[in-house]
Design brief:
The protein contains 2 helices and no strands. By secondary structure, the protein is mainly α. Helix 1 packs across helix 2.
């Protein structure tokens, strides 16, 4: 039987993992935008950068949610 402390610890670990994954996704998105900007030779405005980062993060999050679905789950 698991104590409430074990459950709480598991919850905290899961939450910290989610936060770390979100931070990594944001950093990857920033690097992708920077690389893309260099490739196309265009300087992105702050608003362009923010929009592209958010779009990328949304797409990665949607893909991660789909990857977590089980074989019988409908997406």
């Amino acid at each position: 039987m698991h104590s409430s402390a074990d459950v709480h610890d598991a919850f905290l670990i899961a939450r910290e993992r989610e936060m770390a994954v979100a931070a990594i996704r944001e950093e990857v998105a920033n690097l992708v935008v920077l690389a893309a900007g260099k490739l196309i030779g265009k300087t992105l405005t702050a608003e362009d950068h923010k929009r592209l980062v958010q779009q990328f993060v949304d797409e990665v999050a949607a893909g991660a949610q789909g990857a977590q679905a089980g074989p019988g789950d409908v997406q």
